[in-house]
């Protein structure tokens, strides 16, 4: 069993959760580049783009511009590639959108996963770099923080869009100018950056699939409201301090007063049920899942235009019946808990493919300082990841038909 992407009709039908899957077609470097670089008017730019992707696939070790140039040309090529990535005029937005549409043709998505990516840095001049505490690492790091939007399919997960989180310090006039940060860029929290990355991707009118995201630490009420506004199906990990109204008749003694999630979970221990769901391959996962119908606080619900709509609060615990170790919120109220736990597992799938796929093609290796250069690099590294995951990179030819 794997995960099907639900339409609104399917989400309401308890009998329609079998998976549909079309195996991805073979992909190649020239064929992909003919689609990715259709917006680039000059043939030399299209050739450089393919050279860069080829270098990301074939260079051993760090995927620096110098190492890529040594593979595909030499010193003159290094200067040319540096200009192409950091100083050229081509827009990465149309290329990234073309990559997203190409990706969904070869990796039929079952969900969209939004996941942060930490990029440690030795210095302080790379755009967006800050010294901050990263809970997932348990320490202070000098690093950039980006957010990726991943298409997760049966065979692979691949990034289709990126957003770089910027603090107010990076919008000061001198730093903005040195890093070529555009005027419309704004300071964002991680939660704001994650939501905007998804909404930007959704504006490309890609296939509608459930959104899976760790939303802890952000304004969850605002996030849920905005997603409900646009009709996005969602599976969000939330903080246990979030306040929600209980709407479940199985819980007695609760009025509509918003209460913190940890209090709702404590009162719901009698609703725990053992659930088994498929992991990767033949692995079977299990745990105790508590499911409680809830709603956003009334004011937020009215703003979202869905004040009467129920959500499902899910607590996942171990078989020792202790307090849930994870709490999730979803609007997929009519699908089996095993299906929802499978969606939850897609965060781990992305983490694995980041470490064993995207990192191998240098997604974090950009050493320049500019905002434009960073975005161009991660766009082309995402394309290289698609090829590495599904294509035959060893047979890719350097020639480009202009």
Question: Keywords for this structure?
Answer:
402 residues; alpha+beta; 12-stranded mixed beta sheet; 12 strands; 37% helix; 20% strand; elongated; disordered N terminus
What can you see in these coordinates?
The protein has 402 residues and is α+β, with helices and mostly antiparallel strands. The chain has two domains: 24-210 and 350-395, no CATH class; 220-331, no CATH class. It is built from 14 helices and twelve strands. Strands 1, 2, 3, 4, 5, 6, 7, 8, 9, 10, 11 and 12 form a twelve-stranded mixed β-sheet that branches. A hairpin with an 8-residue loop joins strand 11 (311-317) and strand 12 (326-330). Helix 9 (220-229) runs parallel beside helix 11 (298-304).
Summarize this structure briefly.
This protein has helices at residues 8-11, 29-36, 43-58, 65-72, 75-87, 92-106, 173-178, 190-202, 220-229, 261-266, 298-304, 337-344, 346-358, 371-390; strands at 111-120, 130-134, 139-152, 157-164, 211-214, 234-237, 243-246, 259-260, 273-278, 284-295, 311-317, 326-330.
